[in-house]
Amino acid sequence: MHRQEMLLLILQGEGETLEFKKTITHPARIARTLVSFANTRGGQILVGVQDDGSICGADPEEEKYSLDKAIQTLCEPPVQVRYEEVDMEEGTVLRVIIPESDTKPHLAKVKEDDWRSYIRVKDESVQTSKLVEKSLTLEPATETLEEKVDQLQERILELLRKYRKLTLKDFMHLANLSKQRARRLLVYMVLQGQIRMHDKEKEPFYTLS
């Protein structure tokens, strides 16, 4: 990657597929970020870039050592990454490329004997619910659903704008969807960051993000 391309990438700002890190100082946090990218649509971490987008530079070898250690000890299964060093005027930026995984869900170690799954929602790594985690291993949606996905998504968003919060059963009834189809569609929209699932209640419900 050339300097100009790096500058343009930084100008995009942090988001669903991009995160800035001044340096890798918290292995557990970076493990959650790595796992969330691999579990969603992939992404990039730019080490040597501060939160405001200013370049401070980093020691590539030191940062790669910290990342590799986090990947091997705090990610299960280990996340696949590629590294690229880009020399800028202010210092070297380490570009960490995490492709979307074929072996999801990946888990990050929170503490001893406590491993959790995360996905990327906007610019945050969000802990998944059991429903989302299970869906990561499912086969892709059927062709019929794919053909109507845009129309169905808009219907879901309309319902949430009207009712504020709805359960899976509500969507099945109001949108006239089977349980399997409604669940797949809702999980897909959670992964895309369009809606948020609240699973701390007795019966999980959904709201607009």
UniProtKB/TrEMBL annotation:
Pfam families named among the record's database cross-references: SLFN_AlbA_2
This protein's record includes keyword Coiled coil: yes
Coiled-coil stretches noted in the UniProt entry, renumbered to this chain: 142-169
TM segment ranges: none
Organism superkingdom: Bacteria
Source organism phylogeny: Bacteria, Pseudomonadati, Bacteroidota, Cytophagia, Cytophagales
Species of the source: Rufibacter sediminis
Keyword Coiled coil: yes
Keywords associated with the record: Coiled coil
Annotated ranges, domain Schlafen AlbA-2: 14-127
Record's protein name: DNA binding domain-containing protein
InterPro entries, A to Z: Schlafen_AlbA_2_dom, Schlafen_AlbA_2_dom_sf, WH-like_DNA-bd_sf
